[in-house]
Structure to design on (73 residues):
């Protein structure tokens, strides 16, 4: 019984690896998406609806690429 408790204890102490293979690239793509989405929403509400929608859709391309990289891990 003592061996099993030690194995469980070690597995809880091991660091959890997150981010996959491309964590820096994914962070940049997320930042570009968020900035683009904010700009798109601002343009949508205070200027032209069509241009704002196009900006939001263009920023979504970066999010789709980031999601693809997440699934590649």
């Amino acid at each position: 019984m003592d061996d099993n408790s030690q194995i469980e204890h070690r597995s809880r102490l091991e660091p959890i690896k997150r981010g996959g293979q491309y964590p820096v690239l994914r962070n940049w793509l997320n930042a570009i998406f968020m900035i683009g989405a904010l700009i798109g929403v601002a343009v949508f509400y205070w200027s032209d609806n069509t241009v704002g929608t196009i900006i939001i859709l263009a920023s979504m391309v970066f999010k789709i690429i980031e999601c693809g990289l997440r699934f590649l891990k």
The radius of gyration is 20 Å.
